User: Which sequence fits this backbone?
C-alpha cells in the first residue's frame, strides 16, 4: 500500500495563500455591496410612500377628495366663565327635642317633603299637663289672697281718713297688695312655662324641606341635651350652588353686578353634557383664597323639579356677556399649524383654499371667528387630513346635501348654540 502524506500548511506556497485571501476579500466586498443596494432600495421605497400619499392629497391626476363641509353662520354666542362647584342648601336643620320625655309618636316618613309647622313627632305630654294644672291652682289661690288684700286696703284707707288707724297700718297693707301682685305674676309665668313645655312636646317642622333618615325610634326617651336629634330637614327649594372662578375673572363679574341686572348661571352634570338647572348669581364672596387664587360665588336655583341635590358636584357656567352677530363655525373645522389657526374654505370651482382666521370664543362644538371668514362660506369639517391648498374636493354638506348642490352656499342656516369661554 502507498500512503500519501497531506501537505502541511507551512508547505503551501505563499502565492497560493495570497490568492486565497484576495478571493475571500472580494467575495466579502461583493456581499457588502449587495446588502447596501438592498437597504437603499428599501429606504427609497419607504421614502416614496409619503410622496405618493402627498400626491394623492394634492390630486395630481385630478381625483377629488371626498369631504364634509358646513356653512359659516351669523348668530349670537355667549361668553361664559366656568367653575367647579357643589350644591349647598339654603338651610339645613337638625330637629331636636327641647324637653325631656318619652317619644310617643313619629308622624313623618323618611324622605318626605314637609312644610313649616307640620307635626313631626309627639312627646308624652302628661307630665307637662300636670305641671300646668298645678300652676293654675297656685295662681287661683294667690289671686284670691290678692283680692282680699285689696279689699282690706280700701277699708284701711277709709279708716285712716277718719283717723281710726295709723298711717303705718295703711302702708303695710299697700305693701302686702304689691307683694301678692308679684306672686300672681310669678304664677302666670309658671302657667306660661307649663304651656310652653306642652308646645315643645309637639315637635313641628321649622322650615320647608326634605326629611332625612329617622334617627330615633318611637318609645325611646329623648332629652334636650341629646347631640344627634330626631331628624334632619334640608331645604331644597330654592337651593344654591357655590362655585369658584379665577381671581383674574373677578373684575368683569363685579362690573356686571355693579351695572345691575341678574347674571345667569347654568349647572351641568359631572361630564358637562346635561344641563341640570338654570339660576341667577346671588353674591360674590368677600375675599380671594390666596392658596388657590380663586374666589367663591353663590348662585340660587328654584329647583322646582329637584334637579339639584345637596352636596352634589356640578359644573357651573356663568354667562358674562353675549356677542351678537358673530361668525360661527363648527369647532372641528378649525385647524392649527405653524402659522396659526386656519380653515379650509371650499371655493366655487370645488377646490379648497387655506384661510388664516382669528378664533374668538370657542367651546364644545362651536366657535366664533373674529377675522378671516364671512358668513355663508363653506368650511371643511371632515376629511381635512388629505387636503392641501388648491385640492379638488367632492363636497357633501353636513346633514346629507349632495356634493353638486354645494356649488352655492346654503342659506337659512339654523340658529347656532351658544358657546362658552373659560
Assistant:
Amino acid at each position: 500500500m502507498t500512503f500519501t502524506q497531506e501537505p502541511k500548511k507551512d508547505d503551501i506556497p505563499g502565492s497560493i495563500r495570497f490568492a486565497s485571501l484576495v478571493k475571500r476579500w472580494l467575495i466579502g466586498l461583493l456581499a457588502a455591496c449587495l446588502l447596501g443596494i438592498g437597504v437603499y432600495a428599501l429606504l427609497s421605497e419607504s421614502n416614496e410612500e409619503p410622496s405618493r400619499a402627498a400626491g394623492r392629497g394634492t390630486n395630481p391626476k385630478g381625483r377629488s377628495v371626498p369631504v364634509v363641509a358646513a356653512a359659516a353662520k351669523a348668530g349670537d354666542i355667549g361668553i361664559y366663565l366656568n367653575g367647579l362647584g357643589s350644591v349647598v342648601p339654603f338651610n339645613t336643620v337638625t330637629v331636636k327635642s327641647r324637653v325631656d320625655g318619652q317619644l310617643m309618636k313619629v308622624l313623618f316618613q323618611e324622605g318626605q317633603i314637609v312644610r313649616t309647622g307640620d307635626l313631626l313627632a309627639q312627646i308624652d305630654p302628661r307630665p307637662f299637663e300636670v305641671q300646668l294644672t298645678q300652676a293654675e291652682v297656685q295662681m287661683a289661690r294667690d289671686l284670691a289672697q290678692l283680692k282680699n288684700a285689696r279689699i282690706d286696703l280700701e277699708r284701711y284707707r277709709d279708716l285712716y281718713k277718719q283717723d281710726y288707724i295709723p298711717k303705718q297700718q295703711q302702708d303695710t297693707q299697700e305693701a302686702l297688695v304689691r307683694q301678692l301682685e308679684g306672686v300672681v305674676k310669678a304664677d302666670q309665668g309658671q302657667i306660661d312655662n307649663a304651656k310652653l313645655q306642652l308646645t315643645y312636646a309637639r315637635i313641628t317642622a321649622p322650615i320647608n324641606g326634605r326629611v332625612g333618615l329617622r334617627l330615633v325610634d318611637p318609645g325611646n326617651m329623648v332629652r334636650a341635651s341629646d347631640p344627634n336629634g330626631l331628624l334632619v330637614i334640608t331645604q331644597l327649594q330654592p337651593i344654591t350652588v357655590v362655585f369658584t372662578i379665577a381671581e383674574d375673572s373677578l373684575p368683569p363679574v363685579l362690573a356686571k353686578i355693579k351695572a345691575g341686572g341678574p347674571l345667569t348661571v347654568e349647572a351641568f352634570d359631572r361630564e358637562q353634557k346635561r344641563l341640570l338647572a338654570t339660576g341667577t348669581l346671588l353674591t360674590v364672596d368677600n375675599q380671594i383664597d390666596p392658596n388657590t387664587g380663586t374666589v367663591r360665588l353663590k348662585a340660587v336655583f328654584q329647583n322646582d323639579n329637584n334637579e339639584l341635590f345637596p352636596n352634589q358636584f356640578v359644573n357651573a357656567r356663568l354667562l358674562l356677556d353675549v356677542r351678537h352677530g358673530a361668525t360661527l363655525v363648527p369647532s372641528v373645522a378649525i385647524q392649527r399649524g405653524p402659522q396659526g389657526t386656519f380653515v379650509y374654505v371650499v371655493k366655487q370651482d370645488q377646490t379648497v383654499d387655506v384661510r388664516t382666521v382669528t378664533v374668538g370664543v370657542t367651546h364644545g362644538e362651536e366657535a366664533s371667528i373674529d377675522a378671516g371668514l364671512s358668513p355663508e362660506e363653506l368650511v371643511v369639517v371632515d376629511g381635512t387630513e388629505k387636503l392641501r391648498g388648491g385640492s379638488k374636493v367632492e363636497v357633501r354638506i353636513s346633514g346629507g346635501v349632495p356634493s353638486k348642490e354645494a356649488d352655492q352656499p346654503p342659506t337659512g342656516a339654523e340658529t347656532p348654540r351658544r358657546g362658552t369661554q373659560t
